[in-house]
């Protein structure tokens, strides 16, 4: 496939995913009706309510399209972008192809926060999960700082320590918790977009868009950072840049995890797909990861909500899709290249 | 060594009685066990006897709005005992559903678990549910009693609350009095103390 065609496929992928997802759902709405209702809504919006079309459809159709499907699709796209771009950035910062957005203990911290909120606190699960995800990252960074320096190895090791620490604490909470509440924690850990609404869109969109934009505009530095400590010779303050990148991706990942639970493999898979198509230049890798992450996540969510009568947790879907992809990647590269 | 296990309930109130009798035998309180059993069976039969033929479509949401009780769940059995029909006709205990699925099922009564971190207003104010019968008619209720473990005699109070909520035209239990009676009859506790 030529590079231009590949680029066209990549760019149209999220648009295709978006429209496909609008048409998919357990409540059957015929396609012409979707088109008509959407057109009517667009006309009303563009003319500030001065023009409106009379439609004779059940009110539930409009509710499902604009209050359920649309916010859910937008949330999935935002979270997919955030996780994919986080993976791409961390793989460059750590110079390790197996790193994803959870390497710094974010998922373990968020899981602990959620379990604490479910079982023992009156506060919001989202706030608690977000707070502990950030605590975990800061703890990882503090542990990794040895004699004023943070090296790649120390950061990865600190991440492993913090992951293990919070996982043990979460297991302890699960052990102590009433089994009714435990069911909620287990469900939350597997990830879901089923509770997405416009409030969630509002809460995740600002930090994720800001974070992705910041990474996009700073993406030039990633090529240099991926050289490792040698980047210092080229005049880059490696420690400072690494800290900035880690904090931005941690923030967007924590926001995503807090609202949608733990969704694995996206941060690992998406950057690799882009690399296979366009190479490792972060000038292309970052925007393409954002785009393809959005498209992939919304399609995975379609599988989660439409494959069976009941919902499959999104974390299961992304893992089931991720495993064969990694087997393919391993076979193709022989495990030695990235 | 003789071993027996308590805790599993397939059928209410028979299995609760079976376990009460076992415990009675074990601790030499067979007569007391029989009294508790008689009370629970009487109350259960009283509820079931009044149950109307017309079934209301009921949804039971657990920790999350979209995490619902399936038909194998004890809550589902209690809903059916008072003339409700669980709209989540799925195997297993809990299942995750989409908001869209809930709109499609259109429950007439919506019950929320005692353990949920949200309340009635979360559902009533969610624009996604504005076309659901239960929301339009304000028939969304959060459990006021902690069912504890489903095998405890306290379950009968929860069932009475469901009865009031699902078929208020038939049932009119004064739950404060019912709770006092339960504490007195089963736990030998005077709630005024």
Counting DSSP E segments of at least 2 residues, the number of strands of chain B comes to: 6
The secondary structure category of chain B is alpha/beta
Give the overall pLDDT of chain B as a whole number.
88
The main pleated sheet of chain B reads as: 4 strands, parallel
Structural description of this entry:
The complex is a heterodimer of chains A (338) and B (193). Chain A has 338 residues and is mainly α. Chain A is built from 13 helices and 2 strands. Chain A has a two-stranded antiparallel ribbon. In chain A, helix 3 packs across helix 12 (282-306). Chain B is α/β, with parallel strands linked by helices and 193 residues long. Helices cover 42% and strands 11% of the residues of chain B. Chain B is built from 8 helices and 6 strands, in the order H-H-E-E-H-E-E-H-E-H-H-E-H-H. Chain B is globular, with a radius of gyration of 18 Å. Chain A binds chain B through residues 25-27, 58-60, 63-64, 67-69, 117-118, 124-125, 178, 180-181, 183-184, 187-188, 192, 194-195, 197, 305, 309-313, and chain B through 62-67, 90, 94-101, 103-104, 113, 115, 117, 126-128, 130-131.
């Amino acid at each position: 496939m030529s590079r231009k065609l590949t680029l066209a496929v990549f760019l149209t992928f999220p648009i295709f995913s978006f429209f496909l997802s609008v048409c998919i759902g357990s409540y059957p709405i015929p396609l012409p009706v979707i088109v008509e209702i959407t057109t009517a809504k667009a006309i009303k919006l563009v003319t500030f309510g001065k023009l409106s079309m009379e439609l004779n459809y059940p009110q539930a159709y409009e509710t499902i399209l604009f209050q359920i499907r649309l916010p859910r699709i937008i949330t999935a796209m935002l979270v997919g972008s955030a996780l994919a771009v986080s993976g791409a950035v961390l793989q460059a910062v750590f110079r390790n192809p197996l790193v994803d957005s959870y390497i710094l203990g974010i998922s373990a911290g968020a899981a602990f926060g959620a379990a604490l909120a479910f079982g023992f606190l009156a506060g919001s699960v989202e706030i608690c999960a977000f707070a502990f995800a950030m605590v975990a990252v800061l703890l990882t960074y503090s542990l990794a700082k040895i004699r004023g320096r943070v090296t790649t190895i120390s950061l990865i090791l600190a991440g492993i320590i913090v992951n293990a620490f919070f996982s043990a604490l979460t297991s302890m909470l699960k052990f102590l918790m009433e089994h009714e509440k435990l069911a909620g924690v287990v469900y939350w850990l597997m990830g879901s977009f089923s509770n997405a609404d416009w409030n969630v869109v509002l809460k995740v969109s600002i930090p994720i868009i800001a974070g992705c934009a910041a990474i996009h505009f700073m993406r030039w530095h990633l090529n240099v950072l991926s050289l490792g400590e040698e980047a210092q010779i080229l005049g880059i303050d490696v420690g400072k840049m690494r800290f900035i990148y880690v904090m931005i991706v941690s923030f967007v990942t924590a926001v995503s995890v807090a609202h949608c639970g733990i969704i694995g493999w996206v941060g690992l898979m998406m950057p690799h797909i882009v690399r296979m198509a366009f190479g490792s230049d972060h000038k292309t890798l970052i925007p393409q990861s954002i785009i393809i992450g959005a498209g992939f996540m919304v399609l995975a969510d379609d599988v989660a909500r439409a494959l069976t009568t009941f919902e499959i947790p999104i974390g299961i879907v992304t893992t089931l899709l991720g495993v064969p992809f990694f087997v393919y990647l391993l076979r193709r590269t022989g495990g030695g290249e990235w | 060594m003789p071993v027996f296990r308590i805790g599993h309930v397939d059928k209410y109130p028979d299995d609760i009685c079976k376990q009460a009798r076992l415990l009675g035998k074990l601790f030499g309180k067979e007569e007391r066990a029989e009294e508790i059993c008689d009370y629970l069976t009487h109350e259960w039969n009283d509820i079931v006897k009044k149950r109307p033929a017309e079934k209301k479509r009921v949804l039971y949401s657990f920790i999350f709005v979209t995490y619902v009780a399936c038909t194998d769940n004890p809550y589902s059995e209690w809903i059916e005992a008072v003339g409700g029909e669980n709209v989540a006709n799925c195997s297993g205990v809990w299942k995750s559903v989409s908001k869209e699925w809930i709109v499609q099922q259109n429950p007439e009564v919506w019950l929320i678990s005692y353990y949920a971190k949200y309340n009635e207003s979360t559902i009533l104010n969610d624009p996604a549910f504005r076309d659901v019968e239960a929301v339009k008619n304000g028939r969304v209720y959060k459990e006021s009693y902690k069912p504890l473990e489903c095998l405890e005699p306290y379950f009968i109070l929860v069932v009475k609350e469901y009865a009031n909520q699902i078929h208020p035209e038939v049932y009119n239990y004064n739950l404060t009095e019912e709770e006092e009676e339960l504490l007195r009859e089963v736990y030998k506790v005077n709630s005024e103390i």
